[in-house]
Amino acid sequence: xxxxxxxxxxxxxxxxxxxxxxxxxxxxxxxxxxxxxxxxxxxxxxxxxxxxxxxxxxxxxxxxxxxxxxxxxxxxxxxxxxxxxxxxxxxxxxxxxxxxxxxxxxxxxxxxxxxxxxxxxxxxxxxxxxxxxxxxxxxxxxxxxxxxxxxxxxxxxxxxxxxxxxxxxxxxxxxxxxxxxxxxxxxxxxxxxxxxxxxxxxxxxxxxxxxxxxxxxxxxxxxxxxxxxxxxxxxxxxxxxxxxxxxxxxxxxxxxxxxxxxxxxxxxxxxxxxxxxxxxxxxxxxxxxxxxxxxxxxxxxxxxxxxxxxxxxxxxxxxxx
Length: 321
What we know:
The chain is α/β, with parallel strands linked by helices. It has twelve helices and twelve strands.
């Protein structure tokens, strides 16, 4: 029999706020991210350490190739008593573009579950509004793909379903055809790309917004230093006695946005947990942060082609750039 969960970790987990999705399920606002161009060989151990610190939401994707490590960490967390049961963890994964076609959605989710060693996902997202067939980009059948996502939900394979990288325009279109509405839209969002239009659309429709790259993905091939090297954030952090990352994450949280924070550094994992209580940004600090220049970094230019469905970055994002 597994031992009782560590009381310190349980207390820390309880301190992380949760948001109730449209399906009625509660999602921790802070997720441990596993998407990286340089995945460490000890990822499962790092995830397990994060769970012992109090992390309860783990974000993965078929494309990241981290589902086996996530599954191993979940199994060990339960076996070792770091959590009482699988139900104490919230696991998100995503449908890759090669499976974003009618007839492939449910099988793709079953394959993800097999790699994870799980019976269900807490949240399953369409990774991009993009589809390929045999390596060739084809038109994205939004309705056909979403019917597959709804079937995943109906079968109990995904307790909630949602999307990622959907513009406000695409959210409005999806809501017009969805029988089961998307619970979440996970998008690039940080102080350098505030995503007001997407946030407004999601608020209208009762969709939770989740931020990826809340720190600008500095250090990745496509990332930016707009967040971590921001003189404004450095100024606020110094005044608060906080790190730049903590100020950036606190800003996201105060916008009512959930976030996926990727760090394999154990000290920073603890720092990420410490943003929720005991301090907040002042109105003056938020006004200062609002002056930071805006630029989308994750352009998705690799999905743009003169012969493809999206002939420009503007078309991919419905000119919301």
